[in-house]
Write a structure and sequence with these properties.
The structure holds two protein chains of two kinds. Chain A is α+β, with helices and mostly antiparallel strands. Chain A contains five helices and five strands; from the N terminus they run αβααββααββ. Chain A has a five-stranded antiparallel β-sheet with strand order 1-2-3-5-4, covered by helices on one side. In chain A, strand 2 and strand 3 form a beta hairpin. In chain A, helix 2 packs antiparallel against helix 3 and helix 3 packs across helix 5 (120-128). In chain B, 41% of the residues lie in helices and 33% in strands. Chain B has helices at 25-35, 54-69, 81-89, 102-110; strands at residues 2-8, 11-20, 41-52, 73-77, 97-99. In chain B, strand 3, helix 2 and strand 4 form a beta-alpha-beta unit. In chain B, 41% of the residues are buried. The chains are: A alpha+beta, B alpha/beta.
């Protein structure tokens, strides 16, 4: 481990949540508190909470429950260079949300009764943050949410 | 999350309180679909809803589809600025009438 990544590691706060839908509320509350401490405004905070809720839901329902597994979501947070970074790590099967087909402008123009609903959560995730990325490292899914902190 | 149902001037009024996420959406769906059965018009009061995820949007879509079959309208009351923005970004907003109070909703549906 070089000194830089060690430094980054040391900066990140870790909180662990059981991978059940009962964790969604406390998880959102936790990310809300972190966002407010980081100085995100109300709108940016809401959109980040929505993004983390959507991805946590996917991990809980599809990563763990559907596979008959029990587990945890590790939530790592860090503020640096006017950016808030929230990282989810889990031990479910590899799943890259960014490879899901997203609804596009055309879908949003369709009457509501004809609209395909799949991918809406991922769409809200990607649109809710400045940058969303995924990686699979050391047998763990890592979903990474980054939000620029605008100075008031 | 809590869901309360009323009939006001023969319009189904559903009041939701709390967060609508993938834990609570099934309960919201069940209560809402039961109370709009045989109803042509519905008012959903979201003024005490702070958070609405895509699971909640799906339920609104189901309610809309059911009401649309009866050529009715769905009125949403007290939708927070943040939720309105999400609905706007996803095109959902165009399918609902959004008002500030239940009274306004009733007037809109009666006129």
């Amino acid at each position: 481990m070089n000194s830089r990544s060690y430094f980054v590691f040391m900066q990140m706060e870790l909180k662990t949540f059981p991978a059940t839908v009962d964790s969604l509320d406390p998880l959102r509350q936790y990310v809300k508190d972190v966002s407010q401490q980081a100085g995100l405004d109300k709108k940016a905070t809401y959109n980040l909470i929505l993004a983390v809720d959507e991805i946590a839901t996917n991990i809980i329902l599809y990563g763990y429950e559907k596979a008959g597994l029990e587990g945890f979501i590790d939530v790592l947070t860090e503020v640096s260079d006017n950016r808030l970074k929230v990282v989810f790590e889990d031990d479910a099967a590899p799943f890259d949300p960014t490879t899901r087909e997203l609804p596009d402008e055309e879908d949003f123009d369709l009457p509501l009764e004809e609209r395909p609903i799949g991918g809406l959560g991922i769409y809200l995730t990607i649109n809710g943050v400045s940058e969303f990325s995924y990686e699979y490292i050391n047998n763990r899914n890592r979903n990474i949410f980054e939000v620029d902190i605008k100075s008031p | 999350m809590k869901v309360a149902e009323n009939i006001i001037e023969s319009i189904a009024v559903i009041e939701v309180e709390g967060n609508i996420d993938s834990k609570t959406a099934p309960e919201f769906e069940k209560a809402a679909l039961a109370s709009i059965k045989n109803q042509g018009q519905v008012i959903i009061d979201l003024s005490k809803v702070e958070f609405l995820s895509s699971a909640g949007l799906r339920v609104l879509l189901m309610i809309y589809r059911q009401i649309k079959v009866q050529s009715g309208k769905v009125v949403l009351v007290g939708v927070s600025e943040e939720i309105q923005e999400v609905m706007s970004n996803t095109g959902f907003i165009n399918f609902f009438i959004i008002v500030g109070t239940i009274e306004e909703g009733i007037q809109t549906l009666k006129s």
